[in-house]
Amino acid sequence: MRYFELVGVALPGCFLDLIAVILLQTARGTINSVSDTLNLKYTENDELQLELETKNKKVTHLQTELGKMAMNLFKVEEDKEQMQAKLEGELKDQLEKEKNSFNSTRTKLLEDISDKFNQTKFTKNNAEALQYLLNPSVMKVELQSDNQTMADFLKEKQQPKFTLEKQMEVALQEAQDYKDKYDESDNKKLK
User: Fold this and answer.
1) In angstroms, what is the C-alpha Rg of the chain?
2) Alpha carbon of 55 to those of 61, 67, 69, 98, 134: distances in Å?
3) Number of other CB atoms surrounding residue 77 within 10 Å
4) Strand, helix or coil at 12?
5) Measured between alpha carbons, how far is 148 from 130 in angstroms, rounded to an integer?
6) pTM of the model
7) How far apart are alpha carbons 100 and 74 in whole angstroms?
8) CB atoms within 10 A of CB 69
9) How far apart are CA 117 and CA 133, in angstroms?
10) CA gap 139, 131 in Å, rounded
């Protein structure tokens, strides 16, 4: 039989083997426990990684949508400005034409009055011709007709502008709604 001395006590070799087996089993239990804990942590880490990837995909999707909405908003704004400039140009041109037409009509009326006045010089005794020339209601009807034509034209030209402004308001509201949804989603992501 073999004997070993441990802390001043002689022990047979079989006891030493038994102690070694007990120490190995204890160490194996500790290693198994640590291994189980590590496996649990790896599983939790994998789950968190998947959740993070899902949330990142959502954020990327929302950022893409927000980018599209921003581009649409910029396009609508640009279209609005172009349409407004076009309408203002057309309105300015038309008002200029109407002004020229009005001036032309006024000049023509003044010429007609002058011609009729000159005619009355020749027909001093013709009371009916003189009465027609001096009748203000004839002039008033002609001016009212021109005035109504200009008002109708102005109303017709302003309608597209109002329509465009309404469409712009709707587009801005939609953009604000999308921004609010994005901010809300972003806040949820941060929580």
Assistant:
1) 48
2) 10, 18, 21, 62, 86
3) 14
4) strand
5) 28
6) 0.39
7) 38
8) 19
9) 7
10) 13
